[in-house]
Amino acid sequence: MPKVLCYLESKDSELSSSSEQVLKFALENFTAANVIAVIYGSNLSNSNNSITKLGPSKLYQVDKAEFEVFKSDQVSASLIDLINKDSIDLILASNSVDAEALFGIVAAKTGSNIATDCIGADGSNMTLTRSMYSNKLISQIKLDSSKKSFITFRPNSLRANASSPANTEIINLDAAVNSKITIDSVKKADSKEIPLTEAAIIVSGGRAMANSENFKILRDFAGKIGAAVGASRAAVDSGYAPHSMQVGQTGKVVSPNLYIACGISGAIQHFAGMGSSKVIVAINKDPEAPIFKKADYGIVADLFEIVPALTAKVDLVLK
Ligand SMILES: Cc1cc2nc3c(=O)[nH]c(=O)nc-3n(C[C@H](O)[C@H](O)[C@H](O)COP(=O)(O)OP(=O)(O)OC[C@H]3O[C@@H](n4cnc5c(N)ncnc54)[C@H](O)[C@@H]3O)c2cc1C
C-alpha cells in the first residue's frame, strides 16, 4: 500500500472544503495508517480540528505568522524534506493556484510524476481522469508507480465519505522561515463571498447583463441559494464584473454541482471553464443559442424576468 501525503490548505483559519474532499478521498481509498496530512499557515487550530476529526494517522503542521501568505520557496524546501523523511509515494492536493505552483517545483526537484487538475480517480488503483482540449476529450492516465506522484484534483470533483476516523498524532514540523520572496501587500477577497472554485452552485452572467449594476439580480438570487456569482469574458471585458469572477479558458475553471448560465451564449472558451459542472442550466432568450446544446436544462426567456421570478419562488419555498 502506498504512503499518501495530503497537502491541505486553510482559508480564513478554516480548512478549505476542497482540501477536506482530498483528505476524505485518501482516507476512503487507502489504509488510514498510511494517510498523512500536512498544512502550512498561521492560526491553524480550527483547520486542525477539522483535520483530526477526519483522522489521518499524522498531521504535520507549520503554524507560524511567516507562513500566513504562501511562499513557494519556504514550503517547497520543507515539503521535500518531509516527503523524503517519511518515504511518501503519493502526494495529493486540491488544485489551487498555490498547490499547482508548489507541486510543479517539488515534482521537478524530486524527479517525480505530476498530474494536475484531475477530475477523478479510480480508487487506490489511481487511474486518473483529466479533461483536455476544453472538455472535448476526457483522458484516463496511469502514472509510473516506480516514482513518487504529485496529483491535484479540481475542487468539487471528488466524492468521498471518510468513515471510522483514527487518532491523529499532531507533529510540529521544523520549517525555515527565510524566503527570497517579498510580498508587498495582500488584498483579501470579501470573506462573505463564496470562492468561485469552491462553490457547489454558481450563477454566472454574460454580456446580456448590460452593466455592472444588473449583476445585483444574480447576487440576490445567488444569496438565496448559497451560490457564488461568476461571469463570462464578454461581461468582464465590458467592465460589468472583475476578472476574478471570469469563468473559462482564460478565467477560473470550476466544477460545481449546479451551474446556472444567464445570458451566456456558450462559446467553447466559456465551456472550457465550466464544462465539468454536474448539472448545467442555461437561461437565454435565443432558442438557437449554442449553450442549449451543452445544458442539461434550458429556459428560453429574458433573464431580467426569469431570474427575479426564480428568486421570488425560492423566497416562497424558504418561508
Ligand atoms: C483566447 C480566448 C480566450 C477566451 N477566454 C474566455 C473565457 O475564459 N471565458 C469566457 O467566457 N469567454 C472567453 N473567451 C470569449 C468567448 O469566445 C466568447 O466571446 C464569450 O464567452 C462570449 O460571452 P457571452 O456569452 O457573455 O456573450 P455573447 O456571446 O455576446 O452572448 C450573449 C448571450 O446573451 C443572450 N441574451 C441577450 N439578452 C438576453 C436576455 N435579456 N436574457 C437572456 N439571454 C439574453 C444572447 O442570446 C446571447 O446568447 C475567449 C476568447 C478567446 C479568443
Could you name the key traits of this structure?
319 residues, alpha/beta, Rossmann fold, 2 domains, nine-stranded mixed beta sheet, five-stranded parallel beta sheet, 9 helices, binds flavin-adenine dinucleotide
In short:
The protein contains 9 helices and 16 strands. The protein has 319 residues and is α/β, with parallel strands linked by helices. Bound molecules: flavin-adenine dinucleotide.
Classification by helices and strands: alpha/beta
- Say which CATH homologous superfamily of the largest domain is assigned: HUPs
Order of helices and strands: EEEHEHEHEHEEEEEEHEHEHEHEH
The largest sheet has its strands arranged as: 9-8-7-10-6-1-4-5-11
Indicate the percent of residues in helices. Answer: 25-40%
Shape: globular
- How many structurally independent domains? 2
Q: From the structure provided, what is the oligomeric state, counting identical versus distinct chains?
A: single chain
CATH architecture of the largest domain: 3-Layer(aba) Sandwich
Rg, please? Answer: 21 Å
How many helices? The count is 9
- Biggest sheet statistics: 9 strands, mixed
Low-pLDDT stretches are none
Question: If you average the pLDDT, what whole number results?
Answer: 93
- Whole-Å distance between the termini? 51 Å
**Strand tally:** 16
Strand percentage lies at 25-35%
CATH topology group of the largest domain = Rossmann fold
**Hetero groups:** flavin-adenine dinucleotide
Top-tier CATH class of the largest domain: Alpha Beta
Task: Give an account of the 3D structure.
By secondary structure, the protein is α/β, with parallel strands linked by helices. It is built from 9 helices and 16 strands. The protein has helices at residues 17-29, 45-54, 72-85, 97-110, 215-225, 233-237, 268-274, 291-294, 303-318, and strands at residues 4-8, 10-11, 14-15, 35-41, 58-63, 90-94, 113-121, 127-132, 137-142, 149-153, 169-172, 201-205, 228-231, 258-262, 279-284, 297-300. It has a 9-stranded mixed sheet, with helices on both faces. Strands 13-12-14-15-16 form a 5-stranded parallel sheet. The protein has a two-stranded antiparallel sheet with strand order 2-3. A hairpin with a 2-residue loop joins strand 2 (10-11) and strand 3 (14-15). The chain is globular. The model has no long low-confidence stretch (mean pLDDT 93). Flavin-adenine dinucleotide is lined by residues 206-208, 232-235, 246-251, 263-265, 267, 269-270, 273, 283-286, 289, 302-304.
